[in-house]
Specification:
By secondary structure, this protein is of the alpha/beta class. The protein has 2 domains: 3-218, Spore Coat Polysaccharide Biosynthesis Protein SpsA, Chain A; 229-319, no CATH class. Helices cover 39% and strands 21% of the residues. It is built from 11 helices and 14 strands. Strands 1, 2, 3, 4, 5, 6, 7, 12, 13 and 14 form a 10-stranded mixed sheet that branches. A two-stranded antiparallel sheet has the order 8-9. Helix 7 (229-246) packs antiparallel against helix 8 (251-271). The two termini are 33 Å apart.
Length: 328
């Protein structure tokens, strides 16, 4: 199995200095690429000077995570792509359980390792934790993380199991599957494009697995942190995008409920004196309606839609019923 690790970079010299050494030290069985999204710092010079064996792909523009990887992966020849954030520290032998799982379960298309918090290594990290799921209305949650409640890693998720989505912080995908799915939806730019990709893979019958014997440490928010209103905008908008494209059932009813729940979230931000985040949610909805015609065409093209959720509303379960930890 030919494996390629592809790290997307945008003005990330400091992150490359900090995290590339662990990737190089513990990834002897893989080719390593840095895909640069038209950086204006000295990222490229740094790599060429200090890591001349790393292959560099230079994109012509900053198309975000989605287009950035779509453009870059056209230049990578491998059986499996590992899409790795630039703010991830990998561990010794992290690749071995992944490769073994692909061999043991040859139909598996996508795999995610255990994602732990680089700043607090005993705990899971927000983006992905121990594998992702989604509720009926398109709100994502993870084993080990529901909204802002993060679990400590006590070995409770050291298994290999089927999940619904894998985090883009560290995502392994067979190259043939990535190409068959036409890669990421570039309209997303960044955030939740990996959930959309996994959802489309699931709709086509591809299994997605979490492998708890492989661990990495993720900083999270190194490019766009949680307090940035742009992140709020992208998360709310892109969630609506992927639900409309992929969800099974009465999409108008689903979106109506989303409108209500997103409205409550907007009011909550206003009460918390975060008006910029309230405006971001409103902006997200206006942009969604602007794109609705295109999204409905994409929805129509997705002929096979599966039952995608185990939980009707993670919002109600968490905030009303106070179920703050993952239950299968």
């Amino acid at each position: 199995m030919k494996l390629a690790i592809v790290i997307l970079n945008w003005n990330g010299t400091q992150l490359l200095k900090q995290f590339l050494p662990s990737v190089i030290a513990h990834s002897k069985e893989a080719d390593i690429y840095v895909a640069d999204n038209a950086s204006t710092d000295d990222s490229i010079t740094f790599i060429k000077t200090h890591y001349p064996t790393i292959k560099i792909i230079q994109n012509n523009e900053n198309g975000g995570y989605a287009k950035g990887y779509n453009d870059a992966l056209q230049h990578v020849i491998a059986d499996v792509f590992c899409l790795l954030n630039s703010d991830v520290e990998v561990t010794e032998n992290w690749l071995t359980p992944i490769v073994e799982t692909f061999h043991t379960y040859p139909h598996t298309a996508i795999i995610q390792p255990k994602i732990l918090d680089y700043k607090n290594k005993a705990f899971f990290e927000y983006a992905g934790a121990a594998g992702g799921f989604i509720d009926k209305y398109g709100y994502p949650y993870c084993r080990g993380r529901i909204f802002d409640t993060i679990e400590k890693d006590n070995g409770q998720y050291n298994d290999t199991t089927e999940i619904f989505w894998a985090t883009g912080a560290c995502l392994f995908i067979k190259s043939e599957v990535f190409k068959k799915l036409d890669g990421f939806d570039a309209h997303f730019f960044a955030h939740m494009e990996e959930i959309d990709l996994c959802w489309r893979a699931k709709n086509q019958g591809y299994p997605i697995k979490y492998v708890g014997k492989s661990s990495v440490y993720h900083v999270g928010g190194a490019t766009l942190n949680a307090i940035n209103p742009k992140k709020t905008y992208l998360n709310f908008r892109n969630s609506l995008f992927m639900v409309t494209k992929n969800a099974k059932g009465n999409i108008l009813a689903i979106i109506f409920v989303r409108l209500v729940l997103d409205g409550i979230a907007a009011i909550k931000f206003l009460v918390e004196l975060k008006p910029k985040h309230t405006f971001s949610i409103l902006k997200a909805h206006f942009n969604y309606y602007y794109n609705l015609s295109r999204l409905l065409k994409q929805r129509k093209a997705t002929k096979n839609k599966i039952i995608y959720y185990n939980k009707t509303s993670v919002v109600i379960d968490y905030f009303v019923n106070k179920n703050m930890y993952y239950k299968s």
